Amino acid sequence: MANFEVTATPPAGRATGQAVTSPVSEAVDVPASATAPRPAKPTSTYLPVPVRTFPLPSFYPNNPVSLLHLAYAWLSQVFFPPAAEPSVVHIGIWDPETRSVRVDDPKSIRVLWEQGFFGKGSLSRSEPNWLKRELSRRGAAKPMSVSEQRTESRREARRVAKWERAKAELEALEQQRLEEAGLHAKPTEEDRGEIVVVSQRHEPKAPVGPAELLALPNSLASLVLRHALTSTPLETKPPVGPAELLALPNSLVPKCDQRGPATASPQPNGLANNGASQLSNGHALHGLTNGVSGHVPKASASHENKHASQLNGATNQPNGVLPPRSEGSNDSESVPALNGAPTKLARRKSVRFSPTVESTTFQHHDPPSPGHSSGSRPRTTCTVTADEVASPAPESTSQVSVPEVPLEVQNKEHYQLAPIEAFFLVFALGSLSVVDPVTLAPIPTESLLTLFRAYSYFPPLDTNASLACLRPQDPFLVEYAVYHHFRSLGWVPRHGIKFGVDLLLYERGPAWNHSHLGAIILPSFSHQLWKEVDHQEPKRTWSWLMGVNRVLAHVLKGLVLVYVDIPPPSVFERAMEKGGISAALKEYTVREVMVRRFSVNRNR
Amino acid sequence: MSLDDYDTPTAAPVAGPSTEGGEEGLTAEEALEDETQDFRMFSKFNKSAHVSAQTIRKGEKDFEQVGTRKQEDALEQSRQAMHDVLSYTRVHHPNNWTRAWYFPDWWADWNDDGDDQRPEKLGESGERKPYAHVRDRVVLLEGPSVASNNLGRTPTGQPKDRPARGMDWLLPEEALFLVERGSLDLWWPTRGIEDIFPAAGQSKKDRGGDDADNDEDEYEMGFPLSLQAAYSLLIGEDGERGKISLQKFQVFSNLKRAGYNVLRAPPPQRQPFPESPPPTTLWQWFSSLIPSLERQPRPFGPLLQPGIYRSYVPIYRQLAIIPRHQPSPEPSSRWGMKDPFAIHYHIWKAAGKWSKLRHPPPDFYLAVVDAQETDVPSLEEITALVDATPPAPHKPEWRAMGPRMLAPRLKHGYRHVLVAVVDHGIINYMRFAEGTFVDEPQFERMDGSITEREAARLLAAAAAAAGDWLAK
Question: pTM of the prediction?
Answer without folding.
Answer: 0.69
